[in-house]
Amino acid sequence: MARLNIILLAIVIVCGLSVVTSQHKARKLYVELQRQQEIARQLEVEWGQLQLEQSTWAMQARIEKVAGSRLMMHVPAASRVQVIAPQSSQ
Amino acid sequence: MKPRSASKSHALPGWRARALLMLLLLGFLLLACRAIYLQGLNNDFLQKKGASRYGRVIELSATRGVITDRNREPLAISTPVESVWASPGDVALEPQQAKQLSKLLDVDMSELGRRLADSSREFVYLKRHLPPEQAAKIVELNIPGIFLKREYRRYYPGSEYFSHLLGYTDVDDRGQEALELAFDDQLRGKPGSRRVIKDRLGRIVEDVESIRSPQQGRDVALSVDTKIQYLAYRELKSAVDAQRAKAGGIVVLDVKTGEVLAMANLPSYNPNNRGKLDSRRTRNRTVTDLFEPGSTLKPFTVAAAIETGLYKPDSVIQTGAGQLVIGSATIHDAHPSGALTVSQVIQKSSNVGAAKIALGLPPAVLWDVFSKVGFGVQPRSGFPGEVSGKLRAANTWRPIEQATMSYGHGISLSLLQLARAYLVFADGGEIKPVTLLRQDAPADSTRIFSAATAAQVRQMLELVVQPGGTAPRAQVVGYRVAGKTGTAHKVDGASYAANKYISSFVGFAPASDPRVIIAVMVDEPSAGQYYGGSVAAPVFANVMTGTLRMLGVKPDAPLNNVVLPPPDAPEIREEV
Fold this sequence. Notes:
heterodimer, A: 90 residues, mainly alpha, 2 helices, 73% helix, B: 576 residues, alpha+beta, Penicillin-binding protein 2a (Domain 2), Beta-lactamase, 2 domains, five-stranded mixed β-sheet, five-stranded antiparallel β-sheet, 36% helix, 21% strand
């Protein structure tokens, strides 16, 4: 009887300690999760800012200005445009 | 045996043992009472106190949704910025720090001092919406009592090109105008909060419960196309500048779906930099302002007449000497043309002709057509503040009113309504609701005229842009165009102003299978010209050329289709 009690006591102690360690591990992992979520949030913010930046740089007005002044491009006259009708599938 | 006898001799009095026992029991009783008190009676309070040592409620912010164009190009994005606030009681500023702070915040020293003076307050904004990099520098100063608060600010990459359509938000990122206001419920997120456990380093170690889960704002995809919008704005602006006009508006509609592809106004404003906004600039005139459309309404009169069967496109109307007396009023045509066919009434834009056609119809028929194409009815585009226009009930019409309404006077509507009404001619007699949101499938349309009537009016409208019509400058290389000019005196108080005009042009192309409707309106051109055919038609032609190219529409005419009248030919002037 006494032996059984000792064995049970040992099991209880082991269980207790493993509860503590797993709780500790869970918290550590949770901290890590938090950190990653924070990074995700920051990346999302950055994504928004980059989208904003891209659309600011890609403004039609700016494209037209750069195309005209730096790349010396212009819209071809209608007489120089050839429109090719898409092939019908039959 | 000995000890026993000894113990006997030193035997303690019996009460002492009992007293000790009682004391011990009493001690246990006290402990038990205390335990009951702490664990049972006072438990809630203590639990709360305990939880407040490690538990925290944190706010989860929600961002406002993005507004995009039809190709998912972002038009309005919220990005985080930092607002600097102070608790004046805790702030201890050294003079040198104060100087640095005022420089970083771009706030006067005296203003800074004034805000920090009232130490009874616990929260004072020092500056709102600083870029994150600048805010980081303020944190580096390490001044006690000064904190940052994360907020969102909305940016509009399309600045003045889209400002009337999108509107803007206030400092708390709530929609104030236009579509930002209309779709505020959808765009706005709901911030949430949750309870967590923090350790002594301030790290979150456990998620206890979610009190409210945050709802991110939903994105809204508009029907406008960035490229077409830009083109429309640019062309309108160059025309408004060249004509020294007070204002202008343009609407581009997709015939197949009823979507608004572009909607621009002048004068405009930059929503990213809104110091002083007056409603003269921020109003979306194409939706919220009424004007008397003038001759652009004649096709509806003619279509109503043809639909009744009383007139045919080649029926002859006698306009005589260009005068028509109705009661005490007289309707004039500046250029008497004698006998005109119904087609020519449209082509030459004869007021007398249109009035005579209208007077040959019962008022109810005309009213019915006007009402069905949306005059006097809100277009229900979802835009805040849209107007329904003025169309009086048919039984109150006097003959003179019926006559003037036939050519667009005594009736008022918005440019969006006018553009939408032309759907009936462009879409074979059917009309659709207009929408500012991207549609995946076209909405149901309602039939108003027979396809034959619509086709006949379309042919007449094609005559308008050909030599001999009022708007040869609306022609587009490679495409057949149909449209109608309008030139109307502005209503000034109770009467018409003699020298203030609104010039307009509404048309569509390609005429063989219309894809796009464009309506242009220029308010008070004052550089000498004021006819719709010379002020508004060129804007139409330029925008139409670009739009058809961008949409990849197949040309339906040879490339040498543009026939302008010889330069010395007298311009066909529209009746005003």
